[in-house]
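User: Predict the structure for this protein chain, please.
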Amino acid sequence: MTGSVHVAIGAALGKYIKIKPLAYAVGVLSHLMGDITPHKDVGPMEAPIVFGTLALVGFKHGWTSSQFLGALGGITPDFEHIPAELRKDPRRHGPMEEKLFPTHNGQLEHAHWPLHPALGVAMQIVLYFGCLYLAGTFRKSET
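Assistant: Here is the predicted structure, written as structure tokens:
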């Protein structure tokens, strides 16, 4: 999944998990499930959307909310890609044995989208908005 979808899935799961450390851990686990689901990756160009989505969830639900911690857990495994991206490591788009997360080091297959890329993008757009809706992010605040 794209990083922003990992964030949205983690936020949605966090809404239903009131134990905050568990919300974070389930977010990390959801990253694994997202990586083994066939999908189309976008790459580092989506970093502003990832951080924007984290900010949206944090401002809407609170920086210590279960939604935010689930969202943070959902994206945390991808932070290990940053050093390889910064140094333009030629292996950065494939498994690298020095990475820790199983779908990033080749221990588990990082599934690839077998259909037309536009369908993969459409699926992730639906997941993104659907999960943010389930997290309560688009609901009006009660004042």
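The first helix runs from residue 3 to 15.
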